[in-house]
Amino acid sequence: MLAMDITINGESRQIPDTCSVSQLIEQLNLTGKRLAMEINQEIVPRSTFESHIICPGDKIEIVGAIGGG
Amino acid sequence: MSTQMQQNKTPISDPLVIAGIEYQSRLLVGTGKYADLNQAKQAIDASGAEIITMAVRRTNIGQNPDEPNLLDILPPEEYTYLPNTAGCYSADEAVRTCRLARELLDGHSLIKLEVLGDEKTLFPDVSETYKAAEILLKEGFQIMVYTNDDPIAAKRLEEMGCVAVMPLAAPIGSGLGIRNPFNIATIVENAKVPVLVDAGVGTASDAAIAMELGCDGLLMQTAIAGAKNPVLMASAMRKAVEAGREAYHAGRIPKKRYATASSPVDGLFF
Q1: What whole-number distance in Å separates Cα of residue B178 and Cα of residue B225?
Q2: Which of A48, A68, B61, B173 minimizes the number of CB atoms within 10 Å of its CB?
Q3: Would the pLDDT of B152 be above 70?
Q4: Residue A32: which pLDDT band, with cuts at 50, 70 and 90?
Q5: Could B221 and A69 be called an inter-chain contact, meaning their C-beta atoms sit closer than 8 Å?
Q6: A59 interfaces chain B, CB cutoff of 8 Å
Q7: Helix, strand, or coil here: A56?
């Protein structure tokens, strides 16, 4: 099976080749959650989740809002 | 908020205006450190706060996917969120955090910028704060900025274009109260944007003192969430902020060393 290594929130993961951001979010059971994402320190706007294809070695951060002062 | 809703509320005589938006509450509160999100909501509602802070952190991947979410319990449609950059020790980290926050809140650009210097004091790193502010202002963010109780730094941040300046009263979470009232008063005197005390308040009297000094508002977290009864303390803080504001407008009597009798001397019968 084709796969590539990426890093999500500091953890190494393997995901299938030609995976879009939307597909990744679905795989992680995060569909519909309020989140924001950056890949290699660049924001990935929600409007591009469908079209943005993840590349090998990408460093992905998925963040949400939590309580804070 | 619709104009209709505004009109139905108590007449607004003394709103807090930040970046052109009017708020009736001068108390801003955090959403962290509570026993749970329900307690957070109760305390926030008791405080009367309209602006509430939040932090941006990694989402749990795989674990607890159904964990209650801050934005579900306290919906952005009902409160004005002020995402913070807590935990950032460089301009770069703070800028990334703000960009993510804006994406998370669908383009909302009001943010609380704080760039910290060290873990022991959590004092602001003012030079990194300037750097971050410069980048964020160019990107269209509206910045409420955490800074030292330093009138020069506060003025400079205002002149750069920050929409509110938020000097600390004492270290974050310390509860030491207003350690340098003279500097806070000088910052207020110099400022054309709202000045809010952010950090260091311990109890209601501290909040009243800040307001009596002429501050436009306060932002607090630990003083409420860390109290034995956070909901009651939130209510106390609301009253202290209102009382302090009224006292500021009322104009206090000058302090004197000796007494002035409160009852007339004329007409004494002995």
Answers
A1: 19
A2: A48
A3: yes
A4: confident
A5: yes
A6: no
A7: coil
